[in-house]
């Protein structure tokens, strides 16, 4: 099933009534605020979005607020970024598509449980790790299938060459396991998307810049060399979720040395984070030579996040996206965590502008009308100071960061160095998709 292209009317995007984007006499919907940066080879970008995913509630005291996606989309439209991308209204993933990774009994539970019948499922709740972090809420199945459908559509656009960069800000739910919800994540759309990419791509690199360790994706591909996972996160085994992802967590079996982790302490700042990121990502890409990259852009690594503990500003987070993009490989951008909705939306709008090679001013666009505008008071800018005041003391000394970097370089040395990572053999049956992989792989090898 191919994604449905949408005509870019604001109504199609669920903006109506009082929430219509305000157009004053000087602006029209066809006058974009974003402008293309001259002299850059522009990429084909697709934006995969479904407003229906945004209307779900985890519960009033739960930090995950799907309406942060509404705010993101309002900024994207307000700046006119839709004029620089192919926009698709995504469809729900089918149960068969979810079965590529998740088990039947878990999917059956997820599909059937509702707040009204939750009592009759009480015995199964602990088994599937439902509780305070992962509550049952109305429309949970629709929510999960919508964000997963968007990541699957996005991966398919990269595979068929219609997109160079595909974006799904509703995805990136990196903690979900095969038979278990975890850390606000129920279905692992990232694993599903990577499995699609592996049908044609011999090697896929997964990079995660959420403040939490990307444990679900790592676990899914722990014992294969066809996916390298690289996660930058706060690590404190006992006091910070999920408590995994130390530097010695490196993968196992055929996947030994193909899981990389960058454990960080509180308060890392822009300069240290971006330079560490670049100094690791560049050799990783040069050594591993992936055919495509999936980048999880969790926004809780920003300063001032409700659950995060870093001091990053939006430009620094965006610089990581820009750097990954500069390698020119097919790139899937997904969302993830992010618990201060106004900053999540600022970040993902800014990163949409990076993907589309456009410039957006820091002043919010006049097209951004009420009630959305008020969320950005009192500064009404895209780039407020988030991390520069150092809300968290920087506990990452230069020496510590250099040690972490060295440990990653040691892992890379086991891979033999560029351009040595050649897949001469058909890889082991990966989650039962051997036959589908084999022919495209042989073609890849010949090429
Ligand atoms: F503060 C809360 C209020 C209500 C419900 C949950 C929380 C909460 C905050 N932090 N839960 C957490 C983390 N859980 C624990 C558990 C308590 N147990 C003993 C462990 O500390 C979970 C944080 C999840 C982060 C998810 C994510 O940001 O990485 C994400 N990425 O993509 C989607 C979500
Ligand atoms: Ca997170």
UniProtKB/TrEMBL annotation:
Sequence ranges assigned to domain Histone deacetylase in this UniProt record: 62-353
Active site: 175 (proton acceptor)
Protein residues bound to a divalent metal cation: 210, 212, 300
GO BP term, example: epigenetic regulation of gene expression
Subcellular location: Nucleus
Catalyses which reaction(s): N(6)-acetyl-L-lysyl-[histone] + H2O = L-lysyl-[histone] + acetate
Enzyme Commission identifier(s): 3.5.1.98
Tagged with keyword Transferase: no
SUPFAM superfamilies: Arginase/deacetylase
Binding-site positions, substrate: 133, 183, 339
UniProt KW keywords: Chromatin regulator, Hydrolase, Metal-binding, Nucleus, Transcription, Transcription regulation
GO molecular function, one term: histone deacetylase activity, hydrolytic mechanism
Gene3D superfamilies tied to this protein: Histone deacetylase domain
Entry GO terms, CC: Rpd3L-Expanded complex; Set3 complex
Keyword presence, Hydrolase: yes
Family as reported in the entry's similarity comment: Belongs to the histone deacetylase family. HD Type 1 subfamily.
Name of this chain's protein: Histone deacetylase
Organism: Sphaerosporella brunnea
